[in-house]
Write a structure and sequence with these properties.
5-stranded parallel beta sheet, 8 helices, globular, alpha/beta, Arc Repressor Mutant, subunit A, 2 domains, Rossmann fold, 4-stranded antiparallel beta sheet
Length: 234
């Protein structure tokens, strides 16, 4: 076991077989698990207590996991979110990421893989816990004002939820502003070895962040590429 034991997990899954199997395994791993089967139940429980990570089925009898995610981001922005879905289409994946999801897992899935993803999400949540921000609550990067504790960005009057990975990476770059941060440093900071990241993973992620902070992402002036090394926040 690890210091992640006793983390509180919310499972929102209406399929009885999937839910019961998942809860039994997670409890054996030492997690404290609350299992609900609907949007309304999820809202009730997240109103009453805080969770470290939520596992959300996309299709629910009274709505969708996307509704639950939006609710959680308002009530408990530091909660990591992993989506479960029977559909692996790009639109759902993009929508989940836009809501600040940490990960997206397509059914059927291997329990061992899901547990690794859960542990990785919890590790990142510890890395960027509110205590880690100290007195700094906001940072301006390009055209975006990043609200670290609220896990969101304010861009031209619009509020955009951010995932734990996005916050971890923006926090790292802002703390090292003006310095060149290598791809390896970024990988070690925001990903784990279990996720099989590559330097290309970092490049794709930086492209997403540029769309958030740059006036013209095609000609970046805020997050500069340092060829063969990594990136520099100006």
């Amino acid at each position: 076991m690890s210091d992640l034991v006793q983390s509180r997990l919310l499972v929102v899954e209406d399929e009885k077989n999937v839910g019961s199997t998942l809860v039994e395994r997670l409890q054996r791993e030492g997690f404290l698990v609350t299992w609900v089967k609907s949007v309304s139940e999820a809202r009730e429980h997240t109103q009453a207590q805080a969770f470290d990570l939520a596992i959300l089925d996309v299709g629910l009898p009274d709505g969708s996991g996307f509704e639950v995610a939006a609710w959680i981001r308002k009530k408990q922005p530091s909660t990591a979110i992993i989506f479960l879905t029977a559909f692996g289409n790009a639109e759902d994946r993009i929508r989940g990421l836009e809501l600040g999801a940490e990960d997206y897992v397509v059914k059927p899935f291997h329990l061992k893989e899901l547990i690794l993803r859960i542990r990785n999400g919890l590790k990142r949540a510890q890395l960027i816990s509110p205590q880690s921000f100290g007195s700094k609550e906001t940072v301006t990067i390009g055209k975006a004002r990043i609200h670290l504790r609220r896990f969101e960005a304010e861009v031209e009057g619009h509020v955009i939820p951010l995932s734990h990975k996005e916050i971890a990476l923006l926090k790292l770059l802002s703390e090292r502003r003006g310095e060149v941060v290598s791809r390896d440093e970024i990988l070690n900071h925001a990903w784990s070895e279990d996720e099989f990241p590559t330097p290309r993973t970092v490049d794709n992620f930086i492209m997403r962040l540029r769309r958030l902070v740059e006036v013209n992402p095609e000609e970046p002036e805020v997050i500069k590429s340092i060829r063969g090394i990594g990136y520099q926040l100006l």
